[in-house]
Amino acid sequence: MSTSDSEPLFRTAGTVAGLESVRSLMNAALDILQDVSAQRTGPVAPGGPEGARAAAREVLTGPLLPEEGSAPETALADLVRPYAQWSADLTHPAALARMQPPPIDAAAVAELVAAVLNQSLHAWESGPFALELDRWVVARLAELAGYDPEEAGGTLTPGGSVSNLMAMTMARDTVLADKTGVYPFLGGMRACAGQPVVLCPVGVHFSIERAVRLLGIGEENIVTVPVDKAGRMIPEEADRILRELPEDKIAVAMVAVAGSTDLGIVDPLPELAAVARRHGVWLHADAAYGAGALFSPRLRGLLDGLAEADSITVDLHKFGWSPASSAVLLVRRSETLLSFGLQPTTCLSADDDTCAGFIGLQGSSLQTTRRSDALKIAITMRTLGARTMAAMVDTCHDLARYAAERIDREARLELFAEPPLTSVLFRYVPPQGGDAEADAFNGRLRRRLMEEGRSLIARTHITGEDGVSRVYLKLMLLNPETTPEQLDHVLDDLLAAAEEQETGAHA
């Protein structure tokens, strides 16, 4: 839309003129990001939640959709600067709270390309090459996990929570069909002769509980399997539970942890797979975080038996240096994706478009319109290569071990356990008071460090061998450019802040 004597009101990104405009606007946005980066003093701006809200109140004025639009340069300048100023700086060595690695440069550019071209994967005419790239990336990731790529399948997802939901859906539908002859996606749960149950260890990710709620199984039908002293699910206990299950209960899934987000726990996958096969139960491995070990010859052995699982959750935006969302659900047998409407591709049962090869991916995902996340994954892996990916994983693991050793030497810090991956759990132990006081102290300490913009550290509750749940602080090491000296500075600063808090120097 334009008039003969004025500039167009807008430009679509993919035209020749539009691409030149994208180049100019992107340069302007990068100038803002560089300016903000040069002014940063920590991993987040000081001020805490009230500071972020105040910044939002100052900028987010007027209507979202004004009567008259503004120049794109103005809209970008108005919102990109405060967005950047109040973003967590994932490249900062004190950004240690969450599983958000800083993405590599090529992956960020791939995001821009995907946005400009705006392909979708639900139909062939929505993204011809994007569809082939998606299938290829899924097949190669299945191969990396140990699956036979000719038999395996999968789909890219928005994240581990959706992957886990899809895995539980396939488990419910596949196992109930095998054991009762009823497909829940056709007749519903009431048609099933028995109550489905899901076996999980203590501490399984909350998305599994959410999934069984959404699927009509119900949280009360999660059966907790005992764990050993290392927190690993005990196969003999899982076998016993399945043998003793009442006749009106039908075990549909057993969820194994393959790298827990707090302690990096990996359940005994080969033994659990044998139990699952013996009882006709679907084994799902939640490797959303732990799958990063696949890139490291040093750590890959932790995931022995992963390929025995019927499905695997992998998040490459956690331990793969690709921007979110870069998640995939892998399945050992591609036909189990039938739960999401996957249709056979023979001419006996397909329309003429399908017979001619015009096949989209709408039948293998919860999503219809779906962006091409495979592009940034492929570009990240092609850019880094196996040797560099291994070095990055190992560097993060070394940093975690260094942090653990330093924490273990400090009289006032208590290390929970040696880190098998890159997560380090510890707590500050005040000189007086019991566990409740220590929990409150560590909570205040973490909030203070974030509010002052000094460091971003996570917290969690861990139950010890004595059965008591305690608050622990968590360092998540996913930036291979962090140095041991920078980690020392973070811990020195934490100790100094804790001492100030003890003496009342900070209210």
TrEMBL record:
Single annotated GO MF: aromatic-L-amino-acid decarboxylase activity
InterPro entries found in the cross-reference section: PyrdxlP-dep_de-COase, PyrdxlP-dep_Trfase, PyrdxlP-dep_Trfase_major
One biological process term in Gene Ontology: carboxylic acid metabolic process
Keywords: Decarboxylase, Lyase, Pyridoxal phosphate
Modified residues (N6-(pyridoxal phosphate)lysine): K318
Pfam families membership: Pyridoxal_deC
Keyword check for Lyase: yes
Cofactors: pyridoxal 5'-phosphate
Cellular component GO terms held in the UniProt record: cytoplasm
Stretches that traverse the bilayer: none
UniProt similarity note: Belongs to the group II decarboxylase family.
PANTHER family on file: CYSTEINE SULFINIC ACID DECARBOXYLASE, GLUTAMATE DECARBOXYLASE-RELATED
Protein name in the entry: L-2,4-diaminobutyrate decarboxylase
Species this protein is from: Streptomyces gardneri
